[in-house]
Amino acid sequence: MWAEISEFIQQGPIRSEIIQSVLLIIGVLLVRTVILQTHFRRHPAMQIEDMRRWVVVSRNLTLIACLIGLISVWAAQIQTLALSMFAIAAAIVLATKELIMCLSGSLLRSLTKQYSVGDYIEIGGLRGRVVDINLFNTLMMQIGPNILVGQLSGKTVSFPNSLLLAQSVQRDNILGPYVIHTFDIPVPLAVDPDAVLPPLQALLEQLCAPYVAEIEQHLALIQTQKLFITPAAHPRLTCVPHDDKVYNLIVRFACPLYKRLEIQQNLISEFMRVQYRLLHPAA
Question: Which residues cross the membrane (predicted)?
Fold first, then answer.
């Protein structure tokens, strides 16, 4: 069978197109690599963000150049095939629209590496830990019922992969074994922020202190390898206005993934104790 296919390619009308396509792709990739390496060597002090921008723009331009070149090479074959297959293809697309969208979403997830098994994600109001992925849908253990608790509810929820084409995906553990965790605490306006922030800041720094140094090294490694702009590893507390009754205390800290809920709960418990003492000074 393979011998017959090889003989057809060697003797058939598409032999030249195949050779031209391979040479085109190799040539474009080599040109991109040479341009990037030359530019980076000439500008050794270039910022990480600028380097990342060059990589992204060159990748997109390379893809466009390859597509245009392949269309030019295969124009005659495409035209011949399109005329004969147009009606059949239109009927198939209409009949299998949802199936094609699911397969397209699955392909998009694979190419962009949006998430994999074990990741914590949120999409379309659904939040959970991914336990299974196939060509048509994604299955995850649901987190709830309260998002601040962050525990697995024991229920599973699935969504079609076509949702990836229309919804944004939030992924918690993009930094591997570590996570930058953020949550809000609503605080009554009657509670003085100068009395709340110091004890919470001290507790947060104490809980995160064992991990700050190793997380900083990990973030620096990611920034070097992937050209990502990584966030700071030190914990922060910030007050922002919300309405005429409460203001929000924004808590942000970096820690190992398995420690984030423990640190969050300790901080919330400490806040409730501080708030009670401030609102009931005579108790």
Answer: 18-35, 56-75
Tens digits of residue pLDDT in 131-176:
888 888 898 888 876 666 667 777 888 899 989 888 888 887 777 7
CA separation, residue 107 to residues 3, 123, 136, 182, 243 (Å): 31, 17, 10, 31, 44
State the alpha helices, DSSP H only, in 74-96.
75-95
> Residues 6 or more apart from 77 whose CB is under 8 A from it?
14, 17
Q: pTM to 2 decimals? A: 0.60
Based on the number of CB atoms within 10 Å of its own CB, is 251 exposed (0-12), middle (13-18) or buried (19 or more)?
buried
Tell which residue, 190, 205, 197, has the closest CA to residue 253: 205
Closest CA to 140 of 179, 111, 175, 169: 169
Radius of gyration, alpha carbons of the chain: 27
Q: How many CA atoms lie within 13 A of 280 on its CB side?
A: 6
Q: Is 30 helix (H, G, I), strand (E, B) or coil?
A: helix
DSSP 177-235: TEEEEEEEEEEETTS-HHHHHHHHHHHHHHHHHHHHHHHHHHHHHHHHHH---PPP-S-
Of 168, 178, 187, the residue nearest 268 (C-alpha): 187
Closest CA to 103 of 73, 135, 151, 131: 135
Residue spans of alpha helices (H) in the chain: 2-11, 15-42, 48-73, 75-95, 97-112, 193-226, 260-279
Give dist(CA 267, CA 234) in Å, integer.
16
DSSP state of 136: S
DSSP 283: -
CA 146 to chain centre: 23
